[in-house]
C-alpha cells in the first residue's frame, strides 16, 4: 500500500540584488566571508510513494530509476575499500541498467545522520535537506576535463554523456529522512533552475539550486532497503527535449516516521557515463 506524505521542502530563493548565488564551501567565520548569499524558501509539498509502481519512472522519462540488487560490499566504513570494492560493482550495474559503454566514478559521499552534530567535515556528512541538482551543464563538462585524460576529452565530449548518481541505504532501510526525487516532466528548466557557485579554496564548482514551482511532482520509495538503489540523472548532453535532462532531489523529514527509527545511513556515487 502506497504511503504518500506531506513534508516541508527547502527550495532556493535567489539573492534579491540579482547577484550570482554562491556557497563558500570552507567559509571561516574568522575571515568574515559569508557562507552563502541566498535564503531557503520553505514549502509544503506532497510526496508520492512509488513502491509497487516504480517501473513507471525511468532515467529517460523522469530522470531517475529504481532497481533492486544487493551490493557485495556492505561495510562502507573505509574510503579505500569503497573505491576498491564498491566502485567496480557499481560501474557494472550502471552499465547494465543504462547500456553505457564506459563509466567513470569520480567521487562518493557516505551520509550518516548524527543528532546534534554539525555537517562540517567529510566524516560527518548528513542528509542534504535542500532541493538541488548536483551539476550544471558547464560544471558537467568541466568534470570530463577534470577526471579524464586530456587526449580523450574532445572525442568524449562529441558523444552522448551523462552524470548519474547511484544512491542506496546502508545497513537498514532509509525510513528516517528519506530521499525525494522530482519528476523531470514537472520541471520548467528555464524558470526553476538557479546556478549556484560552489567556492572552494582552489577552484569553483557549480550546482543548480531549485526555485519553488507548485507543479513539481515529488516521488519517493518508502523504506528503501540496502538491497535497493536509485539512479539519479544529474546531467544529460541530449538537451532536445526527447529525454529527461536532470532530477532535482532532496532529503526530507517524513512526519510519519515512527519514534526510535534508526537514523538514516546512505551512500551515493557520482559517475560520468559515456555512450558510443
TrEMBL record:
Supply the PANTHER family for this chain. BLL6449 PROTEIN, OXIDOREDUCTASE AN1597
NCBIfam families associated with the record: CmcJ_NvfI_EfuI
**What is the organism of origin for this protein?**
Suillus luteus UH-Slu-Lm8-n1
Q: What is this protein called?
A: Methyltransferase
UniProt similarity note: Belongs to the asaB hydroxylase/desaturase family.
Q: Which GO terms describe its molecular function?
A: oxidoreductase activity
Query: Which InterPro entries does UniProt cross-reference here?
Result: AsaB-like (IPR044053)
